[in-house]
């Protein structure tokens, strides 16, 4: 096992390059299986989830040539619709293989996706959509077996705005007979990115990024060369780290419109933010002001950013409230933040945070991917030494976090436990 050892109290200065979006990449790799010919995907983040997905695609018979930031996927040899449990259960996003394999083989057998430790995370909306397209689902021995004689277009209304269900139903309907209408869709940038990738392969998808997406089934999809969008959550994480340490950081290779809710909240807290074409400059000289946060589907404040922001609120003047409207259990990391001197209490879906003058270093656990990022930010801002344990959570979704932070002057080391 590995841990990060951080000596805090140093403002971050310099430039950090943002990688490709994890939540795009984990859907685009399965989408590449729908073509009859190879695709090359670049601006790929070099993270564990992508490695795992590449292994799964090879075990399904696909040919994978992977570089650090690019991958070539040749689906022509695909010969199985049943990825191995030990790989598929490592990451929740393996559920995108259901939509992809259903389209490819009219059948898929996938382990029930693990509920991450941020909530139950059901996939009832995915299944509701697949069944509307004509598939039958059985759940046995911890696997979902899903089969369709023929996939036919349908009109599907999602009861919950779901990124995963929106993307999975695009994957399952791109080659279905006729037209599929998806209503009450998620509008995240990565939903649009996946739709753009599918259209680049010859799909006919209109409306991605709005509440309603129309998919007209096509017969064939051909591989293409595609560049993944930058990761707005990784960018937001480094913007918060700059603000938490009172530094001055250029966050490079971003799409500013994807960051509007994050920028607005930082400005509300007294942070100076300057937007350029594909760079955001974040600096903070004065004290942090309190603020309230309510997480919502895009373009609302992203749930993946409430954990890093909690560190800023813990350092701000006054009392702030975070209301987590997306997941029912995404505050576990606050128990770790309390070890560093934060004053917080959780009441149902709200966390009440009373700002304290400073945080002090301590050994803390990464409870999940974004909770882990929050602990690193807290360590960078705290006085003294912080050890962040279980950093495998962080490596799943952040490329070389300690290297990027060292580039900004942070005193952080990856140490084998
Ligand atoms: C995606 O998860 C992201 N993961 C999450 O990021 C992100 O927090 C989430 O979207 C919201 O933006 C990936 O893209 C791999 P949802 P997903 O379906 O698709 C409920 C990270 O840190 N729901 O939009 O699983 C669900 O319980 C991760 O990168 C149902 O009830 O999220 C949740 O309360 C964490 N039934 C809400 O909807 C369903 O069938 C939103 O979930 C599906 C979801």
Q: Strand share of the residues?
A: 15-25%
**Computed Rg:** 21 Å
What is the terminal separation in angstroms?
Answer: 5 Å
Write down the CATH topology of the largest domain. Answer: UDP-n-acetylglucosamine1-carboxyvinyl-transferase, Chain
Bound molecules: ligand EPZ
Q: Approximately how much helix is present in the residues?
A: 25-40%
Based on CA inertia axes, which overall geometry fits?
globular
Helix/strand/pairing class, anyone?
Answer: alpha+beta
The number of distinct β-strands equals 23
- Segments where pLDDT lies below 50 for 5+ residues? none
The CATH top-level class label of the largest domain: Alpha Beta
Largest sheet: 4 strands, mixed
CATH fourth-tier homologous superfamily of the largest domain: Enolpyruvate transferase domain
CATH architecture designation of the largest domain = Alpha-beta prism
What does this entry show, briefly?
The chain has helices at residues 22-32, 48-59, 85-88, 96-105, 124-132, 163-173, 189-200, 232-245, 260-268, 306-314, 333-338, 369-381, 392-397, 401-406, and strands spanning 2-7, 13-17, 39-42, 63-66, 70-74, 107-111, 135-140, 143-148, 155-157, 179-183, 204-206, 213-216, 225-227, 248-252, 272-275, 279-283, 293-294, 319-323, 343-347, 350-354, 363-365, 385-389, 411-416.
């Amino acid at each position: 096992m590995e841990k990060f050892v951080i000596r805090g109290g140093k403002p971050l200065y310099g430039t950090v390059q943002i990688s490709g979006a994890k939540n795009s990449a984990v859907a685009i790799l399965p989408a590449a299986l729908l073509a009859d010919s190879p695709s090359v995907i670049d601006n790929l983040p070099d993270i564990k989830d992508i490695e795992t997905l590449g292994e799964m695609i090879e075990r399904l018979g696909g040919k994978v040539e992977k570089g650090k930031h690019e991958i070539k996927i040749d689906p022509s040899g695909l010969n199985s619709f049943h990825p191995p449990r030990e790989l598929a259960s490592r990451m929740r996003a393996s559920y995108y293989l259901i939509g992809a394999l259903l389209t490819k083989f009219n059948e898929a057998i996938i382990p029930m996706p693990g509920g991450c430790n941020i909530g139950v995370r059901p996939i009832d909306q995915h299944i509701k959509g697949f069944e509307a397209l004509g598939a039958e689902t059985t759940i046995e021995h911890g696997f979902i077996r899903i089969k369709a004689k023929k996939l036919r277009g349908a009109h599907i209304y999602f009861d919950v705005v779901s990124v995963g269900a929106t993307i999975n139903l695009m994957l399952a309907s791109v080659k279905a007979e006729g037209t599929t209408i998806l209503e009450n869709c998620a509008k995240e940038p990565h939903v649009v990115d996946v739709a753009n990738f599918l259209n680049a392969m010859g799909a006919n998808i209109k409306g991605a990024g709005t509440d309603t997406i129309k998919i007209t089934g096509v017969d064939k999809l051909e591989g293409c060369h595609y560049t993944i969008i930058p990761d707005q959550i990784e960018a937001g994480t480094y913007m918060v780290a700059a603000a938490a340490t009172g530094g001055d950081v250029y966050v490079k290779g971003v799409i500013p419109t994807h960051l509007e809710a994050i920028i607005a909240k930082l400005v509300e807290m007294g942070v100076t933010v300057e937007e350029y074409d594909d760079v955001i400059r974040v600096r903070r000289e004065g004290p942090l002001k309190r603020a309230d946060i309510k997480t919502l589907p895009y373009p609302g404040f992203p749930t993946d950013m409430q954990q890093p922001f909690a560190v800023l609120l813990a350092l701000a003047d006054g009392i702030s409230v975070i209301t987590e409207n997306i997941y029912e259990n995404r505050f576990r990391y606050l128990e770790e933040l309390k070890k560093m001197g934060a004053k917080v209490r959780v009441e149902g879906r709200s966390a009440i945070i009373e700002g304290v003058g400073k945080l002090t270093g301590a050994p803390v656990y990464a409870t999940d991917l974004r909770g882990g990022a929050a602990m690193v930010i807290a360590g960078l801002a705290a006085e003294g030494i912080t050890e962040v344990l279980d950093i495998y959570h962080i490596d799943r979704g952040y490329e070389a976090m300690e290297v990027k932070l060292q580039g900004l002057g942070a005193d952080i080391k990856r140490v084998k436990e």
